[in-house]
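ok so i was messing around last nite and threw this chain in just to see what happens. nothing serious, just curious
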Amino acid sequence: MTTFTSTLPDSLLEQLNSYSKKLKLPKNKLIQKALSLYLNQLERAEYIRSYRQYKDDKDILQIAEEGMIDYLKQLIDTDETS
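result:
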C-alpha cells in the first residue's frame, strides 16, 4: 500500500474526525471508502454521458440492439440447459 499525504480544510477535517468517531472507523478507512464511492459515481456518470452522446446514432443503436438479441439468446440457451 502506498502512503498519500494531503491537506484538508479545517471544516472538512472536523467532519472527518466526527464521523470517524461515530462510525468507529479509522480516518484513513473512512477516506478510502468515501473516495471509492465518489470514484464509482464518476465512472457511472461517464457511462451515462457516453450513452447520451450516442443515443441518436442509428449505427450504435443497431449494434447495441444486435448485442442484446445475442445476450437474450444466451440466457434462453442457459435456461434450457439448466
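not much to say yet. The mean pLDDT is 87.
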